[in-house]
Amino acid sequence: MRDCFHSLATLGVLFTACFSASLNAQGFPVKTVKITSAYPSGAGPDLTSRLIAERLTRYWGQSVVVEARPGGNGVIAIEAAKKSAPDGYEILVAGGGHLVINPVLFRDLPYDMERDFAPVVTMFQAPSMLTVSASGPYNSLGDILAAARAKPGQVAFGTQYIGSTQHLGGVIIEQLSNTKMLHVAFKENAPLFTALINGDTAWSLTTIATGQPFYKSGKVKYVAHTNRTPLAAFPKVPTMEQAGLPGMNFSVWAGMVVPRATPPDRIAFISRDINRAMAEPDFQEKVSALGFVAEPSSPANFDALIKSDIKLYTDVIRRGNIKVDQ
Questions:
Q1: DSSP letter assigned to residue 74
Q2: Which helix H or strand E contains 166, and what residues bound it?
Q3: Mean pLDDT over residues 80-103, rounded?
Q4: Residue 200's pLDDT is what?
Q5: pLDDT tens-digit map of 187-205
Q6: Domains assigned to the chain
Q7: Torsion angle of the four alpha carbons 176, 181, 186, 191, in this order, in degrees rounded to the nearest 10
Q8: Angle CA(268)–CA(272)–CA(273) in degrees, nearest 5?
Q9: H or E stretch including 278?
Q10: β-strands 33-37, 64-68: how paired?
Q11: What DSSP assignment string belongs to 96-121?
Q12: Given Cys at both, which of 6, 129, 185, 326 links 222, Cβ 3.0 to 4.6 Å?
C-alpha cells in the first residue's frame, strides 16, 4: 500500500513538473511580474510577499517585484490591481479585512471580491492572541467572561478601529458567549497597548507581531489564541475552544488574488509555484518569526475560505448592528 502511495505521489510530482514546463513553454512569464501589496513597506504581509517574490524570481528566471501601495484602507492597491490586465503579470496581496470585511461594511466600495477577483493562494494565517495586562486581574478567557456577565457593558476591549478584524473578533466572542462588553476604538497600536497595560481596557485581540515587544518585556500576557490548533511557540496558551468557547471561527489572513478573467491554467501555475515557495523550510522559519503561520492552499480552498468568511462576517455585522461612517 505504501509503495502504491509512493508511486502515486511520484506521478503527482511528475504531473506538476510537466504542467509547469508546459505553461512555461507557452511563454509565461516572459517579462517582469509585479506583486501589488495593500500593505506598507516593511509590514509583515509586505515582507512575506517579498520572500515569495525572491523564490518566484529564482524559479521563473524573470524578475518578480513587490510594489507597496498602502492607503485608503486597501482601496488604492485593490483598484490598481482590478484595472490590470487579466494575464497573471500583476498579483494583488490583500487581507480578509480588505477583501471580505470592507465589502460587507461599506456600500460604495469600487470593488467586489467575488465579482472582480479570482483567488490564487492564501499566504498565512495570523493567530490573534487574547491579550491582557500582566498585572491585571484576568488570567483566562473564563475570567473575562465571568466579569462580563457580572457587569454587562462595562468590561472594555480595545481595537484599532470600528470594523477591524480585531473588533469583529471581539464581537464574535460576545455573540458566542452571550455577553455584552464595551468596545473602545483606538487609531494606533501605541495608545491601545498603553490602555491595556494600565488596565483602562481589560483585553484585546492582538497579533503576535504587534504584541510581542510587550509580551517579552512582561507587560502583557496571552490567555488564549484563535488558531485552530495549538501554537508550537506558545504551548501553554490554549486555543479559544480549549479555553471554553466552542465554535470560535475567526482568523486573520492575507492572500494573493488576480483579476477575475485571468485564465484558470495560469492561476493554477502561479498558485502551485507560490505553494512551492512556501514549502521551503527557511521560508516557513522567516514567516514564523514574523508571527504568522504559513498557509499553503489551492485556489479552490482559498475560494472556500473567502466565501465562508463573507457569510461569517455578514452575519456578525448584521447581528451586531455594526455601522461605520460612509
A1: G
A2: helix 165-177
A3: 96
A4: 97
A5: 888 999 999 999 999 999 9
A6: 2-125+251-320 (3.40.190.150), 128-225 (3.40.190.10)
A7: -110
A8: 120
A9: helix 264-278
A10: parallel
A11: HIIIIIHHHH-TT-S--HHHHEEEEE
A12: 129
Q: Quote the cell numbers at residue 186.
A: 483606538
Q: What is the pLDDT of residues 276-315, one digit of tens each?
A: 999 999 999 999 999 998 988 999 999 999 999 999 999 9
For 45-60, write each residue's pLDDT tens digit. 999 999 999 999 999 9
Q: Secondary structure of 170-220 in the HEC alphabet?
A: HHHHHHHHCCCCEEEECCCHHHHHHHHHHCCCCEEEEEHHHHHHHHHCCCE
Q: Measure the CA–CA gap between 215 and 199, rounded to whole angstroms.
A: 15
> Residue 260 carries which side chain, given as an amino acid letter?
R
Angstrom distance (rounded) from CA 242 to CA 314? 26
Q: Is 34 helix (H, G, I), strand (E, B) or coil?
A: strand
Helix (H, G, I), strand (E, B) or coil at 132: strand
For residue 209, pLDDT over 80 is answered with: yes
Does residue 22 carry a pLDDT above 60? no
Neighbour count for residue 61 (Cβ, 10 Å): 9
pLDDT at residue 13 tops 80: no
